[in-house]
Amino acid sequence: MKHDPYSLTELIRNEDFIAWVTNPDVDSDSRWRLFLENYPEKKKTVEAAREYVILLAKDTGRDMPSDKQSNRMWSVVESQMHAAREPSSGSTESSSEGKVVVGWRWLRVAASAALILGIGSASYWFYYQKTGRGEGSAVVPYASSKTGAIQKQNNTDKPMMILLTDGSSVVLQPGGTLSYSENAGGKRREVTLTGRAFFEILKNKEKPFLVYSYGLATKVLGTSFVIEAEKESKEIKVEVKTGTVSVFAIGDLDKEQRESEYDKPELKGVLLRNDQKIAFSRENGKIVKLQTSVIERHIGSDVSSIPFVFDETPASEVFLTLQNAYNIEIIYDKSRMGDCPLNATLVGQPFIEKLEVICNALDASFDITDNRVTISGRGCK
Fold it and tell me: Are residues 217 and 284 in the same domain?
């Protein structure tokens, strides 16, 4: 019999597959999505293998099982093997349905025990100790399988601002990772997030913006919102600051339904408007409304809590607010512009739009290079 490297038993001891299920990144997600596109007949096998890996995390937690636990699991395996070989009275060996059920039960237990007790166990426990429990679908749809992708990791202790090609801005908090494509083509804008980030999305009704986080999709046309998708947390939290977003569980839809839903300009799923928030359970895929604010817990500590409302505010204070919020250096002529009063409400606008409004008021222009903004103009003097 020809060896199949992508059979169920091979997949559940494949280190790359386990890493993809438990802690997906742009590269691994691209590889496995491309594999499924090339071998659609393997879809059911891959889904079953994913369920096993997630099941094991739920059943055993993060720690290596003790000898007592291992012996108990092997006892279960042996009893299931015995039951599979000797059908109970009343069952018929000619019944293909009965054989499938018995075989499936035996395979479920045997594969689980084999994985825990040695087949790929080192890599399995390494990934789970590193990333936490894998409840919920960790497989994230992402456009990078066909386009070049960029991954930004914030390994500092300060927020990191990321300017996207469409003019949107994302403030990624320490420990977070954002993956995205700079390709301007396609019907939608897509990013993948782990960690906490504040999004200010440029409005484009014809091109929805989607954020994928551990089985949850957040879809917007243009607004500002916070997502908390920490690796260690059992919940993904979303709170809207301005505008409207929709959230829905990816696992509730098959591939065709997902692709269709992503491309639609209208918003479906659970709709959230100003100041509304939800939590998505990675354990059962349920979405519930929250009463406790995600943003209020961080008042004064990150950009999502800053009002950006200026009333006769000196330009020097406005620039200082932007510097602190986005962790970016702003260079300007203080003698010409510093005391110029500004009146503006810039809530929910991406960073570049904020700069445009301010510079129009100051009869100035700006240039962004790396993490520095240079503003040139006559100011009000």
Answer: yes
